[in-house]
Amino acid sequence: MAWRTLAGQRVLLTGASSGIGRELAIQLVAQGTKVFALARRRSRLEELAQEINQPELFAFRECDVTQPADREQSLQTCIECFGGVDILINNAGSGAIGPFAAADEARLRKLMEVNFFAPVEFIRLTLPVLRQGNKPLIVNVSSVLGHRAVPQKSEYCASKFAVHGFSDALRAELAAEKIDVMLVSPSTTETEFFDKVTGDRQKPRGRFGAKSPAYVARATIRGMQAGRHEIILSTGGRLLVWLDRLCPPLADRLVAWWG
After folding, report:
1. How many domains does the chain have?
2. Angle CA(2)–CA(22)–CA(19) in degrees, nearest 5?
3. 254 occurs within a structural domain
4. Do 187 and 233 contact (CB within 8 A), yes or no?
5. Which helix (H) or strand (E) holds 73?
6. Are strands 10-13 and 58-62 parallel, antiparallel or unpaired?
7. Which of 156, 178, 203, 211 is catalytic?
8. pLDDT at 213
9. Would residue 242 count as lying in a domain?
10. Do residues 212 and 165 make contact, with C-beta atoms less than 8 angstroms apart?
11. Helix, strand, coil tally for the chain in percent (to 5)
12. Is 110 labeled as catalytic in the residue annotation?
């Protein structure tokens, strides 16, 4: 992956109404990046536009990323605003907590639609435009749980494992075209995730050490600039990944106990 300067780059960003996406929009615009932000909650996007207050660098559109027509119109509007796309950031996501046996097929299908199928199809749609971009880059915001699964989040982990595997394969496929793919794997982040998850509404143990959305956004931007293939955004997350690689039985026992 090549070192890139983000000033003047054109970014199409999903899930921009809160959390990591919102911070990414603010911090990218501060660097002179042109950001076209998407989210389902138009009122949140309007508030963000007022806060940023740089219409030459920031535009937005209400969008449900699971709907093909919304994706197509959003891409077209981004092109009309900024003339193209250099970077696609798939940040929109959904969660679920609770035992797999107590859930139903609808919960799994909803998670896979938002967390996997929507970003994959947005990439498919955007690739012809990215091929004409300046140092094109795809950023998929996943999770450390896309490396090591834990109890009570089986469907969420499955969706993030899918994003991880897809990102690795796509990176190799697009290398000859010089289109980069970066995977972002945060651990627990202080966002609205636990307020919006389906299933068990009780917040799980282990939220101490959670990173702020601003921290995750800063690290993501540094990774984009430095040409990283992947970033894992906490010491605990990195330890969990390495433990799973070096001693899977021990990792199994620990997550079964902690979960």
Report:
1. 1
2. 105
3. no
4. yes
5. helix 68-82
6. unpaired
7. 156
8. 94
9. no
10. no
11. 50, 15, 35
12. no
pLDDT in tens, 3-33: 789 999 999 999 999 999 999 999 999 999 9
Could you give the C-alpha distances from 252 to 51, 116, 239, 243, 259, in angstroms and in order? 45, 25, 14, 10, 10
H helices present in 175-212, as ranges: 193-196
72, part of any domain: yes
Pseudo-torsion of CA 103, 107, 108, 112, nearest 10°?
-160
| Gap between the Cα atoms of 21 and 213, Å rounded | 8
Pick the catalytic residue from 34, 153, 160, 211.
Answer: 160
* Cβ pair 123, 88 in contact under 8 A: yes
pLDDT at 51: 97
Q: 3-class SS at 92?
A: coil
Strand-pair category, 96-97 with 34-39:
unpaired
Distance CA 60, CA 85 (A): 14
Q: Which 8-state DSSP code applies to residue 116?
A: I
| pLDDT score of 99 more than 80 | yes
- Phi and psi at 34, nearest 5°, equal -90, 120
- pLDDT score of 191 more than 50: yes
Annotated catalytic residue 211:
no
Residue 239 domain-assigned?
no
Looking up residue 51, the CATH number of its domain turns out to be 3.40.50.720
pLDDT category at 209 given cuts 50, 70, 90 is low
Please tell me the predicted confidence (pLDDT) of residue 52.
97
Name which residue leads in pLDDT, 236 or 138. Answer: 138
DSSP 175: G
Range of the domain at 137: 10-234
Q: Which whole number is the average pLDDT over 80-98?
A: 95
Read off the pLDDT of residues 215-259 as tens digits, 9 standing for 90 and up.
999 999 999 999 999 999 877 777 777 777 878 787 778 777 775
